[in-house]
Amino acid sequence: MESIFHEKQEGSLCAQHCLNNLLQGEYFSPVELSSIAHQLDEEERMRMAEGGVTSEDYRTFLQQPSGNMDDSGFFSIQVISNALKVWGLELILFNSPEYQRLRIDPINERSFICNYKEHWFTVRKLGKQWFNLNSLLTGPELISDTYLALFLAQLQQEGYSIFVVKGDLPDCEADQLLQMIRVQQMQRPKLIGEELAQLKEQRVQKTDLERVLEANDGSGMLDEDEEDLQRALALSRQEIDMEDEEADLRRAIQLSMQGSSRSISQDTPQTSGIHLTSEELRKRREAYFEKRQQQQQQQQQQQQDPLGQLSHPCERPTTSSEALGSDPGDVMSEEDMLQAAVTMSLETVRNNFKTEGKN
């Protein structure tokens, strides 16, 4: 099909498309056909002038528009016939009594030119197959041999004038190629108007869909698509949460190994999955040293006033050193307290790893 020359409709230049599709090439242009039309007009004017330039018929002829062409691009059968004479071709009316008496089977012809209401198109045999080369179609239409006679009869019934093209057509690539192979057409071409209407309808549907999506803030998706999107978002959030937990754990281990001052009071429950930020660890460290300083002051007061210790035995607080198993009477240096805090932090991380391993 790609080798077949097929001009599509432009304006009202169907006569040009008809001739070029028949000859299988860009043989004629509107300018060349207009030149033929003007030549025919001049020949008609000269014949009318033979009856006298002052006659009523002559003046009426001059006032009438050309019968061979118009501004829209239409050309008459006389223009088409004269254009084909250049190639040694002539037209015979298919349904004329003279041709019908010959009783020639249409399948034995080579091409036809059809006209209805100022529209021209070609039906031609290429290789061993017939094709409708109507310029109003989106492409060549394959016509079977058995359907050809019925197709022409249908055109006649609809009011078409059909002309048989007599003579040798110029050689073309499509004719040579289709002499060796036969083509099959799975889908018949549509009229150009139908294709444009479908494209317009598709654009309208697309525009309506965009308006619906815009009115719904882009949420006008189908329910199934929306469910798939929600599931994808949920899985994504789970992955992000897992990554955040792993990152928190790595940061806690890194801070502990760097020797940052942290203290975790024995009163605080050790639960797997609790992650402390650097700011929280700093506050607990300050609380630890502040509490330790208060304990040292209380111990000094107790040594100076042993009776106060006996008078209020329940007011003596339980120190962190006791929680670590140290002697209550010992006074820890700041370096010892820092080391103890780091030891407790590392012990907490180890307990967390053990707990997660069991789970």
From TrEMBL:
It is found in: Nucleus. Residues 294-304 have a biased composition (Low complexity). Its EC number is 3.4.19.12. The active site is at 14 (nucleophile), 14, 119, 119 (proton acceptor), 134. The keyword Nucleotide-binding does not apply. Residues 289-335 are annotated as: Disordered. Signal peptide: none annotated. Keywords: Hydrolase, Nucleus, Protease, Repeat, Thiol protease, Transcription, Transcription regulation, Ubl conjugation pathway. It comes from the Eukaryota. GO terms for biological process: actin cytoskeleton organization; cellular response to amino acid starvation; cellular response to heat; cellular response to misfolded protein; cytoplasmic translation; exploration behavior; intermediate filament cytoskeleton organization; microtubule cytoskeleton organization. Gene3D superfamilies: 3.90.70.40, S15/NS1, RNA-binding (1.10.287.10). It is an enzyme of class 3 (hydrolase). Pfam families: Josephin, SUIM_assoc, UIM. Residues 1-180 form the Josephin domain. It catalyses: Thiol-dependent hydrolysis of ester, thioester, amide, peptide and isopeptide bonds formed by the C-terminal Gly of ubiquitin (a 76-residue protein attached to proteins as an intracellular targeting signal). InterPro entries: Ataxin-3 (IPR033865), Josephin (IPR006155), UIM_dom (IPR003903). GO terms for molecular function: ATPase binding; cysteine-type deubiquitinase activity; K48-linked deubiquitinase activity; K63-linked deubiquitinase activity; ubiquitin protein ligase binding. One of its GO terms (cellular component) is nucleolus. This is ubiquitinyl hydrolase 1. It comes from Canis lupus familiaris (Dog).
